[in-house]
Amino acid sequence: MKYLILVFLIPLIGCTTQNKKTDKNQELYDYDVEQKLVEMSIELNVPKLPPGLNFELATQSNNLIYLSGGGPLLANGELITGKVGTDLTVEQGYEAARLTAINQISILKKQIGDLNKVVKIVKVFGMVNSSPSFTEHPKVINGYSDFLIEVFGERGKHSRSAVGMSSLPWNIACEIEMIVQIKE
Q1: Spans of all domains in the chain
Q2: What strand order describes the sheet that includes 64-70?
Q3: What is the CA radius of gyration of the chain?
Q4: Helix H segments across the chain?
Q5: So what CATH class is 33-182?
Q6: Residue 140 · residue 175 · CB < 8 Å
Q7: Helix crossing, 137-152 with 90-112: angle to 10°?
Q8: pLDDT tens digits, 60-101
């Protein structure tokens, strides 16, 4: 009799555990990420790889998406250029980093199809074009981080590095990489 009861109880326990996992996943998606972008008046435009370069803008390994370093490319094809602290203010650098986040989200959407698949922004590596005496790199890269948290909420919180560089390609104000975990 004991064994017969166990045979019936074990599947019930499994169902309860499965329901808890499902409920937990539903908590991650209590709003539509893409609708939120529309409400924020954000238009996604996938940047094109400049001619002569031979790499992917994003690659996937299992449930991780690795985004190559991207920069502040405006919709008209112009780049935000200059050294932060010399040619650009910290606020202008912040806006350049925010624009870079929008561009990276555009690439991510193209790669995975639906931004609601994002489970977690795992890591951000931000490089700021700056003079050797500039020390406010984190304030610049906050433009990127703040945007991700605004769009993805708790899922947008990530580990991060923010460093200065003596130069960046095409004199762009910043270049930022990102690693994203997606729902399989």
Answers
A1: 1-30, 33-182
A2: 58-61, 64-70, 174-182, 118-129, 159-165
A3: 21
A4: 2-28, 33-39, 90-112, 137-152
A5: alpha beta
A6: no
A7: 40
A8: 999 999 999 999 999 899 999 999 999 999 999 999 999 999
Tokens, residue 125: 């590596």
Residue with tokens 């700021």: 128
Q: How is residue 179 written in tokens?
A: 């690693």
Asked if residues 176 and 124 have their Cβ atoms less than 8 Å apart, the reply is yes
In the block, residue with structure tokens 């998606």 = 29
The pLDDT of residue 29 is 59
Averaged pLDDT, 45-57: 88
Closest CA to 107 of 63, 154, 60: 60
**The two structure tokens encoding residue 51:** 């001619």
**pLDDT tens string 145-181:** 999 999 999 999 999 999 999 999 999 999 999 999 9
Question: Model pTM?
Answer: 0.84
The amino acid at residue 119 is V
- Per DSSP, 31 falls in state S
Q: Vertex 37, ends 22 and 182: CA angle to 5°?
A: 40
Residue type, 48: K
User: Given the structure tokens 């008209």, which residue do they identify?
Assistant: 76
